[in-house]
Amino acid sequence: MHIAIGSDHRGLEAINAIAEMLVRDGHKVQRFDPEDAQPADYPEPAFAVGQAVITGRAERGVLVCGTGVGTCIAANKLHGVRAASVADELTAEISRSHIDANIICLSADLTGKRQMERIVALWLVTKFQGGRHARRIEKITLIENGQDPSTNP
């Protein structure tokens, strides 16, 4: 799978470990992160990873910042991105199976590297269930288009 990854300065160490794991597991990785630990603004990698995903240059994306929240908010500003801030395996699984998240956002400050690796590995193999969940994704798309989702049952 082709995966776009990125981080700010606080997530650099974690994203390095995730990149190594992904390459070791046979994935192609496109990186969008700072070259060193100097302060970097999280909206930049969020935009780059989001663009890679929505244009099809990557199938999925992984972002890491201090809490995972900033990159999640920034990435979700892009039409077609469904980014989820995830802290454990359960939310990783649900973010894929129910929400069809195409980007996962992790906390460098609150989640250990091994836990992040387990989360990403599970997230990558979890399939979207469709069914009633597909209807909900359609309603998210209506919101992206400025429409009231309650008007489309």
What can you see in these coordinates?
A five-stranded parallel sheet has the order 2-1-3-5-4, sandwiched between helices. 44% of the residues lie in helices and 16% in strands. The chain is an alpha/beta fold and 153 residues long. It has one domain (2-151): Ribose 5-phosphate Isomerase B, Chain: A (3-Layer(aba) Sandwich), CATH 3.40.1400. The chain is globular and about 50 Å long.
Give a summary of the structure in a few sentences.
With 153 residues, the protein is an alpha/beta fold. Helices cover 44% and strands 16% of the residues.
Write the layout of secondary structure elements.
Blueprint (H helix, E strand, L loop, with lengths): L1 E6 L4 H13 L3 E5 L10 H12 L5 E6 L3 H7 L7 E3 L3 H9 L5 E5 L5 H13 L6 H13 L9
Parallel strand pairs: 1-2, 1-3, 3-5, 4-5
CATH topology (level 3) name:
Ribose 5-phosphate Isomerase B, Chain: A
The separation of the N and C termini measures 34 Å
The number of helical segments is 6
Q: Structural class, judged by helices and strands?
A: alpha/beta
**Which shape, going by the Cα principal axes?**
globular
Output the radius of gyration: 15 Å
- Tally the beta strands: 5
Tell me the CATH architecture. 3-Layer(aba) Sandwich
Helix percentage range: 40-55%
Quickly name the level 1 CATH class. Alpha Beta
The major β-sheet equals:
5 strands, parallel
Q: Estimate what percentage of residues fall within beta strands.
A: 15-25%
CATH level-four homologous superfamily name: Sugar-phosphate isomerase, RpiB/LacA/LacB
Order of helices and strands: EHEHEHEHEHH
